[in-house]
Amino acid sequence: MGVLGLTSRKFNKFFQIKYKIINRNYYTQKRLLSSNYSSQNDAILPVLIVGAGPVGLVLSALLTKLGVKCAVLERSTTFSKHPQAHFINNRSMEVFRKLDGLAEEIQRFQPPVELWRKFIYCTSLTGSTIGSVDHMQTQDFNQIVSPVSVAHFSQYKLNALLLKQLEAVGFTVRSHEGLDHRPLAEREILMGHNCISVEATGNLVNVTTSFVKEGKHIEKQIPCSFLVGADGAGSTVRNLVGIEMRGEKDIQKLVSVHFLSQELGKYLMYEKPGMLFFIFNPGAIGVLVAHDLKQGEFVLQMPFYPPQQKFEDFSSEVLFFS
Ligand SMILES: Cc1cc2nc3c(=O)[nH]c(=O)nc-3n(C[C@H](O)[C@H](O)[C@H](O)COP(=O)(O)OP(=O)(O)OC[C@H]3O[C@@H](n4cnc5c(N)ncnc54)[C@H](O)[C@@H]3O)c2cc1C
């Protein structure tokens, strides 16, 4: 996640400086963030967050709780139904504990821990088990290292709970049609808007977004005091402000197949319940993520090696019959 507020053109430097300013002059910053928007200039949002993934949504809820006015821009026109992440660590659960009952809701709605505490290594789902690892430890249940245990809950379900929380404090999800020509208001999540440029002038960050209307790309300017890049691993905001990603890129490519099978869910639930199934045999290698055995919701992840392999090699016909 990146944060940008505007006092310097040297974005990289600014990135570090701004954090220091926030820490040193907390009260000044607090006034700027909470009162500037309504009383001085209605067109300037105190905080604009790019990205309505879990990080952007959690941040919106936390800022709102602190009285900081914010809005969110999201490139996709709808929220993804791909399960993506599922394993939530202690630290994330501790943050969720601060959000009116979110940690408790996750614990209530997640599958029973007995169904996901194991990683299973096997030759195939119906074949022999090579070994299994129980990744839950006594300390996880006894609240020794953290007051909240880890959880197993699909990302799209988490996003739905976060949206419910945000709606309860006055957030609205808008398509670009819902905005017309008026500026983006606080507590709005604007869908279908791709952040394409960021410009720092004086105390403002001018964010340009692009959206599609009747087949045409239209650009819109959104000024704000602080910009937060919560736009994922390939962050556009990070690239636009010239912050390089450290470490190795493209470590591995995977093809993920999301499917529903109550039959498989029932079979695994009784035969070998687990969260991850590492499958090794000469015909196929993959990791099956059991998002919810009771619902029969799975993602099969397979290694993908372009240019030797093409994406088309993983067509639904091939996957269904293999
Ligand atoms: C298959 C899979 C399994 C995973 N499993 C786990 C797991 O078990 N546990 C775990 O902790 N993590 C897991 N992860 C990683 C986890 O999904 C990410 O860490 C998490 O999604 C990061 O959240 P985020 O909000 O930062 O970014 P994202 O979820 O990527 O959200 C970023 C949002 O920003 C939007 N966006 C991007 N660019 C722009 C732009 N230019 N303008 C406007 N909007 C933009 C995107 O559309 C997106 O909605 C998994 C990921 C995948 C793909």
CATH architecture of the largest domain: 3-Layer(bba) Sandwich
Residue runs with pLDDT of under 50 for 5 or more positions: 5-31
Question: And the CATH topology of the largest domain?
Answer: FAD/NAD(P)-binding domain
Overall number of structural domains: 2
GO molecular function: FAD binding; oxidoreductase activity, acting on paired donors, with incorporation or reduction of molecular oxygen, NAD(P)H as one donor, and incorporation of one atom of oxygen
Organism: Artemisia annua
Keywords: FAD, Flavoprotein
Protein name: Aromatic-ring hydroxylase-like protein
Report on this structure:
The protein is an alpha/beta fold and 322 residues long. Helix 3 packs parallel to helix 7 (155-168). Residues 5-31 have low confidence and may be disordered. It has 2 domains: 2-80 and 156-240, FAD/NAD(P)-binding domain, CATH 3.50.50.60; 112-139 and 250-321, 2-Layer Sandwich (D-Amino Acid Oxidase, Chain A, domain 2). The longest helix is centred in the N-terminal third of the chain and has 14 residues, at 11-24. The radius of gyration is 22 Å and the shape is globular. Strands 1, 2, 3, 8, 9, 10, 11 and 12 form an 8-stranded mixed beta sheet that branches. The two termini are 40 Å apart. Strand 2, helix 3 and strand 3 (70-73) form a beta-alpha-beta unit. 30% of the residues lie in helices and 30% in strands. Bound molecules: flavin-adenine dinucleotide (FAD). Flavin-adenine dinucleotide is lined by residues 50-56, 73-76, 84-87, 155, 194-195, 230-232, 236, 256.
